[in-house]
Specification:
- There is one protein chain.
- The chain contains 16 helices and 35 strands.
- With about 675 residues, it is of the alpha+beta class.
- Among the domains are: about 1-70 and about 215-255, ATPase, nucleotide binding domain (Nucleotidyltransferase, domain 5, 2-Layer Sandwich); about 485-595, Dna Ligase, domain 1 (2-Layer Sandwich); about 620-680, no CATH class.
- Strands 13, 14, 15, 20, 23, 24, 31, 34 and 35 form a nine-stranded mixed β-sheet that branches.
- Helix 9 (about 260-275) crosses helix 14.
């Protein structure tokens, strides 16, 4: 049986087809088609043609999408309305005190996802302990429904005060709205984010309403197009927490797809790290539009229950991924003061970089790599895209070199230096500023553009080594195939850790486990393949922010509270540089994660071994730094490199999905899994 995954980026759509029985894998990249699913259908048909297999052999398809991400980042989401308790119309505008520069005299506040004019107050009130302070009358429900019938929104978010203590009012409103506004998407805060704190709950529910309609339309369109080509197996979707879910589960909370695309690469990185014995890694995923960074610590991806995504704070389980606008298609500009900038605008796939020959005239990082000889028409994307070096040179010369008064080669080298500086800063913020020693981490680079620029990063960051997986250009798509089914639940639970009544907590977890167990059953996961992981949001008494801490990862449901306290103190020291073991610890929320293990491919050792030195298939002249001269550089094919082979820079390694660069001071070794390990200033490890 065949299993297929796809990862849609801003420039390319990556696909991986695995024949588990034969142990074979086929990869492909096709230009992305914006918000349409056409590129996916084209890619599936191309993959099946390559293998000569009918579509009926496909046992499953898992899809990672940037539809929700792009709607979010471009602020082109749905026309949504938010219903709030009377007196709380300004909840999104007030927000929190959090801002980028706390002591700035002037601060720019990000606009709310839903404007104040689209926030409707509802005359009702639930108290802090779930008591009804003001009843929600049928007359008030009718009034609210009438108002919304006139507004005709695409989506409705409902977030009433203390609804997590008593959800009756939210449920009654939602039921009435569904009867009268059948087409509108309706999201309640008790379903999206059942936690205390009116702002984060309201904002997270608003986020679901903001991206939901477009995501639902896209998924429905994809399902229809898959059916049209004869696909009849289950469709699954990648979520931001590193798990996969059915379209029905995604429809309940579309905000879980906000980081769908980058999550696959992190899952693949963790799996590869366990196979090759590297438990601590920084992941570096650079595609055509952006660069994504994450941490693997002790073999596990870092998961966060609270994230800031483009100035908006959300409370959802998500992999801890940081994104900046540095990709192969990122456009370079020179401002009026003569400063060089790279990003945030991207050329995308249409028109794409100037070297693609599709009408692009602005200089991008890909054009810079072509000007320096790091990319060449003879081996780029297996010849599917014909590079135009002259167009790349003209774009860099006209838009960057002339304004800066330098050669095109120096301008191209400067573009790469600026982009790498931005990316190094993002990695330092993710590691050093959180108490991690970069010298003990490996840098794992993937994505279509990652392997070109990662060599500069390895040289300047001081990491242990640079690791390039066998298929870096489609690594995130491969990771999507490695992901398990996941469901999450959370509930408020206010208690002191020291005087906790364990049975009360066990009862609350039992209720959540029942719901998640039923969800896994609906997904077809057999009981032996189900696992449950228990967490609590903890804080010192008097604090506001919480730290999510493992309670019990063994699925036994027993609580060693002294060990839990020690874990919390350690995480607090890691995050803030200090802890207070004498202070009382409070439990704020309980969290449960349900994991349904699925059949998946695994990384395999390469049977063949090297005999003799690797032979380059060509040579070309390259420039690797500003002011540098062109120098001959051997070019190797990745398929010719076997375990035991060693390379010394400068060198270029080409393959169908990416190009890998070794700088003059770097050396590389091919390990037993076909992974390229690169180090600076000495023999490869």
């Amino acid at each position: 049986m065949l299993y297929l995954s796809s990862d849609v980026g801003g420039t390319f759509t990556d696909l991986v087809l695995v024949d588990a029985a034969a142990g074979q894998m086929v990869i492909d990249k096709v230009p992305s088609s914006g918000r349409s699913a056409d590129a996916i259908i084209q890619g599936i048909q191309r993959m099946l043609e390559k293998t000569g297999r009918p579509i009926g052999d496909l046992a499953g398809f898992i899809h990672g999408s940037t539809i929700a991400t792009n709607a979010w980042l471009t602020r082109q989401g749905a026309d949504a309305v938010l219903l709030v308790t009377k007196g709380f119309r300004d909840v999104l505008e007030i927000g929190t005190q959090r801002r980028e520069h706390n002591y700035a005299l002037t601060a720019r506040r990000a606009p709310a996802l839903i404007s104040r004019s689209r926030i409707i107050e509802v005359a009702e009130r639930i108290g802090a302990f779930g008591e009804v302070v003001e009843s929600l009358t049928d007359t008030e429900i009718d009034r609210v429904v009438d108002v919304l019938c006139e507004l005709k929104p695409d989506a409705i978010a409902i977030s009433l005060l203390f609804s997590v203590r008593n959800d009756d009012h939210e449920k009654r409103l939602a039921a009435a709205l569904r009867r009268r506004l059948g087409k509108a998407k309706i999201y309640t805060s008790v379903s999206i984010n059942p936690e205390l704190g009116e702002y984060l709950r309201a904002n997270t529910t608003a986020a679901a309403a903001y991206v939901g309609p477009e995501l639902d339309t896209y998924i429905d369109s994809l399902a229809v197009k898959l059916k049209d080509i004869g696909f009849a197996s289950p469709l699954m979707l990648m979520r931001s927490d590193g798990g996969v879910a059915t379209p029905e589960a995604i429809a309940e909370n579309p905000a879980t797809m906000l980081l769908s695309g980058p999550s696959g690469g992190v899952i693949a990185a963790a799996a590869l790290g366990k196979a090759i014995g590297l438990p601590d890694m920084v992941t570096f995923d650079m595609g055509g539009t952006s660069a994504d960074f994450s941490l693997i610590v002790d073999g596990e991806p870092r998961l966060s229950s609270e994230r800031v995504i483009k100035d908006q704070v959300l409370r959802l389980p998500m992999l801890d991924i940081e994104t900046i606008s540095s990709g192969g298609g990122s456009i370079a500009t020179v401002d009026h003061a003569g400063a060089l900038h790279v990003g945030p605008l991207s050329a995308g796939s249409r028109p794409g970089p100037a070297c693609y020959g599709k009408g692009g005239t602005q200089a991008t990082l890909t054009d810079a790599a072509v000007v320096l000889g790091l990319l060449a028409p003879s081996d780029f994307a297996s010849g599917d895209i014909a590079l135009d070096p002259q167009a790349a040179y003209d774009a860099v010369h006209a838009t960057i070199a002339v304004p800066l008064g330098m050669s095109a080669e120096d301008a191209a080298a400067g573009m790469i230096a600026v982009a790498c500086s931005q990316m190094r800063q993002a990695i330092r913020a993710l590691t050093i500023e959180r108490g991690h020693d970069l010298r003990t981490f490996s840098l794992l680079a993937f994505g279509g553009a990652g392997s070109i620029f990662a060599s500069f990063m390895e040289r300047d960051l001081g990491v242990e080594q640079l690791v390039i997986p066998p298929t870096p250009g489609v690594f995130a798509a491969l990771g999507i195939l490695l992901a398990d089914i996941r469901h999450n639940a959370q509930t408020p639970f206010s208690a002191g850790l020291q005087d906790l009544q364990p049975q009360a907590m066990s009862d609350r977890f039992a209720e959540m486990r029942g719901r998640l167990d039923a969800a896994l059953a609906r997904d077809g996961v057999e009981p032996p393949r189900r696992a449950f992981h228990y967490y609590a949001d903890l804080r010192y008494q008097g604090q506001f922010h919480v730290i999510t801490t493992v309670l019990d990862a063994s699925d036994k449901g027993s609580w060693d509270l002294a060990t839990v306290a020690d874990r919390f103190h350690a995480k607090h020291r890691q995050a803030y540089g200090h802890s207070d073991p004498d202070s009382a610890i409070e439990i704020v929320n309980l969290r449960l994660e349900a994991v349904g293990s699925v059949d998946k491919p695994s990384f395999q050792r390469v049977a063949a071994r090297a005999s003799g030195e690797p032979r380059p298939w060509s040579t070309r002249n390259i420039v690797v730094e500003k002011g540098g001269r062109r120098r001959p550089c051997p070019v190797y094919r990745r398929a010719d490199l076997l375990p035991g082979h060693e390379l010394r820079g400068p060198a270029i390694v080409t393959q169908s999905d990416t190009t890998i660069l070794l700088l003059p001071e770097q050396s590389a070794q091919i390990d037993d899994y076909g992974v390229i390990r690169i180090t600076s200033g000495g023999r490869a490890r």
